[in-house]
Amino acid sequence: MTIETILGAIVIGAIIGALGRLVLPGRQPIGWILTIVVGIVAALIGTAIAQSLGVATTDGIDWIELVMQVVLAVIGVGAVAALRGRTRV
How far apart are the first and last CA of the chain? Predict the structure, then answer.
């Protein structure tokens, strides 16, 4: 794993996490670092699911994979926000 791969994962995670927060209605009580972490995890899982389903990798934007990643980010941000909201007293 190179520094470019790590930086790329952080950038993609930030974008996917931000898109997930934009799609999810309401206010989420999580910070931007946790949003990036959720985005990175959603991007990795979305890519794995897309590859297991046989979604072809193209030179351009893989829209089906991107939609899967954003949907997973919405679920992840919602779950983390619910857990964080429940643990605060």
Answer: 41
